[in-house]
Amino acid sequence: MNDSVKSNPAVVPTAQALSRSVPIAVLSEQDQQDIARIWAEATR
C-alpha cells in the first residue's frame, strides 16, 4: 500500500476514529428483504 493510501483516514481510520466506532448489527433475512423492498419502492 503506498503512503498516500496509508495516510488517508477514509481508508485506514485513526485509533481515535476506531475508538468511537460501533459494530454494525447483523440483520435477519426478513430485515434484509424488508430493506431491499423499501429501497426498491423508493427508487421507482
Write the layout of secondary structure elements.
Layout: H1 3-6, H2 15-19, H3 29-42
Q: Please report the distance between the alpha carbons of the first and last residues.
A: 40 Å
Strand content: under 5%
**Unreliable spans:** none
Global mean pLDDT: 94
Major pleated sheet: none
Q: Over all CA atoms, what is the radius of gyration?
A: 17 Å
Number of helices: 3
Structural notes for this entry:
With 44 residues, the protein is mainly alpha-helical. It has one domain. It contains 3 helices and no strands. It has helices spanning 3-6, 15-19, 29-42. The longest helix is centred in the last third of the chain and has 14 residues, at 29-42.
Short description:
This protein has 44 residues and is mostly helical.
